[in-house]
C-alpha cells in the first residue's frame, strides 16, 4: 500500500472502505439457517408468482422542450414546466439561505464532529509509523449556534483587517470549521477561493496568486507547506488556521513574519467582542472561485454565483424523497470539490444534520481507527451519503472478496440472495412485494449494511460514471437507491439526477428542475440528434446552475459558454450523451477522448477504460492510442493483493512488487484477463490493448496523476510514462 495521507479520496484510503475484518460476521451463519434461507428464497417466488405478474410501467421523467440557442434536442424535467431557481421565496443567495434555514431549524442539530480521546503512533512491519485515533461520540452544534459562529467569524475577519475588495481562500480538508468559514465570508460578500488540501505547490501558488487572495484559511498542518512557498505568494496578508490540539512553536517560520497569523477561535472572539453589520451579496455575485481538479495542465478557476448554488440545491431537494430534519448526512468528501459543496448546500437547505468524517476514519477498520474504536459511520448511523464511483467500487470489491474467501455455503447463500434481490430491484413480478426482500435483508444483507452504519436510505453518486455492478451491489447489499448524478464544476454539479424509483443502470437521470439539457450534433464524431432509436450529441447545459465562466480566462470562457437570444446561459460540456425515450440521459463518450486510428477506426479511450476496469487485476488503467497505428496499448496499475495472490498460486518468485510487475508471466496473466473482459464487453479488436505495461505504484492525487475524484490525468500520465509508451509501440 502507498504511504500518501493527504487526500480523502486517494487509492490507498479507498481500500479501507471495503476490506475490513468486520465482515467476519459471516461466521454467524449455521448450516440449518443457510438451508432454510435457500428454501425460502426458492419456494416463495414460485408460490406467489401467479399473484404478482407484470413489470412496472415506465415513467416519463423528462420531456422535450423548445429552447433558444444552437439547434439541438432539448429536454426538461417532466415534473416542472418552469425552471426552479431557489428552494423557497427569498432564498436567492447562500447568505440568505443560510440565515433563513438556521432560524427555521435553530434548535436542531446541524454540524457534528467526533471527540478526540487520544492518538498514538504504531510502527508497521515495514518500519513506517501510522497514526491511530481513539474517537468518542459526535458532539453537535445546533443551527442557531452555527449561525452565531459564522456571524462572529465574519465580523472577526473585518476586525482582523481583511480588505472587502479582496478574496479569501480555504485550504483544508473537510471539517465543520471549513463550512463555518465559508458562510462567514458570505455574510460579508467575500468571494471564497476553494483549494484542495492535496494540491501540489505549483498549482497552489498559481491558484492563490491568480485570484490575489489576501486572507488564507487553512489547517495548522498546512502552515509548514505555506512557509516553504511564502516567497512566491504575492498577495497574502492574513493567515487563519484551524486549531488541532495546538501547534508546534516552530511551525510558524521566520519566512512568514510578514503575515498576520491568527487562530480560527481568536478570529471568532474578535467578532463576538466587536460585531460588524453584515454586507450581504446579490444572487449574481461571485460566491466561490472553485479550482477544478485539472485533468489537463494547471487548474482553472470556475466563477460560481450565489444564484448557481441555491439553484442546484433547490433542484436536488426536489429529487431526494422526503429529505429533511430526520436525515443525518455523512460528510467526508473534499469540500473543495463541487460535488461535496453542492451536497452540503442541499443538506443546509433541507435542515439535515451533518456529521463530519474522513476516508481514514469512515469505517471500523479504516487506517486511522484504533482497534476497538468504532468508525464514524458506525457511530453516526447516517441516512444519506455521497460517494464517487471509485469508493463504491472498492466497497463492492471488498465485500465480494470476503465472500469469496469464505466460500462454500456462505458464498452460495450470498449468491442466491443477490439473484433474488436483483430480480426485485429490476422490477420483476415480485418487485413491489416486500416479504422476500425483508427475509433476505435479515438473513444476509443486514450484517453487510453495518459497514456504513445500517441506516443508509439514499446514496448520491457523482464525479464519474458508476459501473452497473457497483450500482446493483449498493441497491441490493446496502438496500438503498442511488441518485446517480451528472454535473460539472461549470454547472455547480447541477445537470441531471436519477430519481429514487428508477432502477435502471448506466444512466444519470433526467434534467434537474433547475436546468435544461440539450444535445447538439457532433458530425465529426458521428453523433447526431437525428440518430435512431435515440438522439445523440454533445451535452449542453442551460439554466440557473450554469456558472459565470473561468476566472481571468475570457478565451476559454468564450469557447465553452454561450448566451442565447433569450438571455439563457449554456455550457458546452464536451461530453457525448443520448436521451432514452423516458427522458433520461446516458453518457456514452467524450470528445477529447476519441482518437482516429491509422485505418480510420475511432476509439473512445474513456469507454475502453471503463470496460477494462472490471478486470479483477486492475486498480487503474490508461489506454493510449497513436493515430499512426491500428491498435492501442495500456498502462495498468494492478491490484497488489490480487496479483500477489496469483503469483503465489502460480509459484512465481520475486523480491518486491516492482519485480513482479516486470515479469513476463505477470504481464501475460493480466493481458489475458483484459482480453477476456474486452470480449465480454463486446469491444472491437482495435479497442483491446495489444500490449500493456504493469506499473507498481498507485496513482494518487498527491502524485498529480489523478484528480481528487480519481479521474486519470491523461496528459500528465503520458508525460510521466513517455518512455514506457514508446517501448510499447517499439
From TrEMBL:
Lineage of producing organism: Eukaryota, Viridiplantae, Streptophyta, Embryophyta, Tracheophyta
Q: Does the keyword Metal-binding apply?
A: no
Name the record gives this protein: AMP-dependent synthetase/ligase domain-containing protein
Alphabetical GO CC annotations of the entry are: endoplasmic reticulum; membrane
Superkingdom as given in the UniProt entry: Eukaryota
Give the SUPFAM superfamilies listed for this entry: Acetyl-CoA synthetase-like
Outline the extent of the AMP-dependent synthetase/ligase domain.
134-551
Transmembrane spans: 32-53
Which GO MF terms does the UniProt record name?
Answer: long-chain fatty acid-CoA ligase activity
Provide the alphabetized UniProt keywords. Membrane, Transmembrane, Transmembrane helix
Amino acid at each position: 500500500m502507498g504511504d500518501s495521507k493527504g487526500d480523502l479520496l486517494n487509492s490507498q484510503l479507498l481500500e479501507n472502505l471495503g476490506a475490513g475484518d468486520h465482515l467476519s460476521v459471516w461466521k454467524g451463519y449455521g448450516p440449518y439457517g443457510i438451508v432454510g434461507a435457500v428454501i425460502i428464497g426458492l419456494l416463495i417466488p414460485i408460490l406467489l408468482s401467479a399473484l404478482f405478474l407484470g413489470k412496472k410501467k415506465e415513467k416519463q421523467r423528462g420531456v422535450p422542450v423548445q429552447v433558444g440557442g444552437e439547434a439541438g434536442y432539448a429536454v426538461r424535467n417532466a415534473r416542472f414546466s418552469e425552471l426552479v431557481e431557489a428552494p423557497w421565496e427569498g432564498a436567492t443567495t447562500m447568505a440568505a439561505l443560510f440565515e433563513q434555514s438556521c432560524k427555521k431549524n435553530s434548535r436542531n442539530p446541524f454540524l457534528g464532529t467526533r471527540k478526540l480521546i487520544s492518538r498514538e503512533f504504531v510502527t508497521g512491519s515495514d518500519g513506517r509509523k501510522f497514526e491511530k485515533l481513539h474517537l468518542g461520540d459526535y458532539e453537535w452544534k445546533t443551527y442557531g449556534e452555527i449561525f452565531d459562529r459564522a456571524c462572529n467569524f465574519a465580523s472577526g475577519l473585518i476586525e482582523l483587517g481583511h480588505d472587502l475588495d479582496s478574496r479569501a481562500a480555504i485550504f483544508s480538508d473537510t471539517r465543520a470549521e471549513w463550512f463555518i468559514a465559508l458562510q462567514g465570508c458570505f455574510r460579508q460578500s467575500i468571494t471564497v477561493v476553494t483549494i484542495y488540501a492535496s494540491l501540489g505547490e505549483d498549482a497552489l501558488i498559481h491558484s492563490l496568486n491568480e485570484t490575489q487572495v489576501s486572507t488564507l484559511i487553512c489547517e495548522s498542518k498546512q502552515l509548514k507547506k505555506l512557509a516553504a512557498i511564502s516567497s512566491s505568494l504575492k498577495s497574502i496578508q492574513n493567515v487563519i488556521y484551524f486549531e488541532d490540539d495546538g501547534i508546534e512553536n516552530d511551525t510558524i517560520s521566520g519566512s512568514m513574519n510578514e503575515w498576520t497569523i491568527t487562530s480560527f477561535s481568536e478570529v471568532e472572539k474578535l467578532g463576538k467582542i466587536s460585531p460588524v453589520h453584515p454586507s450581504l451579496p446579490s444572487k449574481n455575485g461571485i460566491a466561490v472561485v472553485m479550482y477544478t481538479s485539472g485533468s489537463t495542465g494547471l487548474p482553472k478557476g470556475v466563477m460560481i454565483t450565489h444564484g448557481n448554488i441555491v439553484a442546484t440545491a433547490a433542484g436536488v431537494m426536489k429529487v431526494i424523497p422526503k429529505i429533511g430534519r430526520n436525515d443525518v448526512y455523512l460528510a467526508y468528501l473534499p469540500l473543495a470539490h463541487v460535488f461535496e459543496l453542492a451536497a452540503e448546500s442541499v443538506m443546509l437547505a433541507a435542515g439535515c444534520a451533518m456529521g463530519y468524517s474522513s476516508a481514514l476514519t469512515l469505517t471500523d477498520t479504516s487506517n486511522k481507527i484504533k482497534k476497538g474504536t468504532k468508525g464514524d459511520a458506525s457511530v453516526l448511523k447516517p441516512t444519506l451519503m455521497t460517494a464517487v464511483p471509485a469508493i463504491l467500487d472498492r466497497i463492492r470489491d471488498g465485500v465480494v472478496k470476503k465472500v469469496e474467501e469464505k466460500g462454500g455455503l456462505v458464498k452460495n447463500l450470498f449468491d442466491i440472495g443477490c439473484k433474488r434481490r436483483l430480480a426485485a430491484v429490476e422490477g420483476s413480478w415480485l418487485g413491489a412485494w416486500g416479504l422476500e426482500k425483508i427475509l433476505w435483508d435479515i438473513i444476509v444483507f443486514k450484517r453487510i449494511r453495518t459497514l456504513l452504519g445500517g441506516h443508509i436510505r439514499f446514496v448520491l453518486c457523482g464525479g464519474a460514471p458508476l459501473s452497473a455492478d457497483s450500482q446493483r451491489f449498493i441497491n441490493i447489499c446496502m438496500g438503498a437507491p442511488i441518485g446517480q448524478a451528472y454535473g460539472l464544476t461549470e454547472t455547480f454539479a447541477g445537470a441531471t439526477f436519477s430519481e429514487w424509483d428508477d432502477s435502471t443502470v448506466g444512466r444519470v437521470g433526467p434534467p434537474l428542475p433547475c436546468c435544461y439539457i440539450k444535445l447538439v450534433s457532433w458530425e465529426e464524431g458521428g453523433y447526431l440528434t437525428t440518430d435512431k432509436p435515440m438522439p445523440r450529441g454533445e451535452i449542453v447545459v442551460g439554466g440557473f446552475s450554469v456558472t459565470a465562466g473561468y476566472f481571468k480566462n475570457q478565451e476559454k470562457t468564450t469557447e465553452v459558454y454561450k448566451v442565447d437570444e433569450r438571455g439563457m446561459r449554456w455550457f458546452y460540456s464536451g461530453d457525448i450523451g443520448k436521451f432514452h425515450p423516458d427522458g433520461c440521459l446516458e453518457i456514452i463518450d467524450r470528445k477529447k477522448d476519441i482518437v482516429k486510428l491509422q485505418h480510420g477506426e475511432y476509439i473512445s479511450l474513456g469507454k475502453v477504460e471503463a470496460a477494462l476496469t472490471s478486470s479483477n487485476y486492475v486498480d487503474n488503467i490508461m489506454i493510449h492510442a497513436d493515430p499512426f497505428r491500428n491498435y492501442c496499448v495500456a498502462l495498468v496499475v494492478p491490484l497488489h493483493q490480487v496479483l500477489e495472490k496469483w503469483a503465489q498460486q502460480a509459484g512465481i518468485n520475486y523480491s518486491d512488487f516492482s519485480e513482479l510487475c516486470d515479469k513476463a508471466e505477470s504481464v501475460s496473466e493480466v493481458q489475458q484477463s483484459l482480453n477476456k473482459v474486452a470480449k465480454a464487453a463486446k469491444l472491437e479488436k482495435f479497442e483491446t490493448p495489444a500490449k500493456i505495461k504493469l506499473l507498481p505504484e498507485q496513482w494518487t492525487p498527491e502524485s498529480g496523476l489523478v484528480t481528487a475524484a480519481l479521474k486519470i490525468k491523461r496528459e500528465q500520465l503520458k508525460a510521466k510514462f513517455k518512455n514506457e509508451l514508446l517501448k510499447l509501440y517499439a
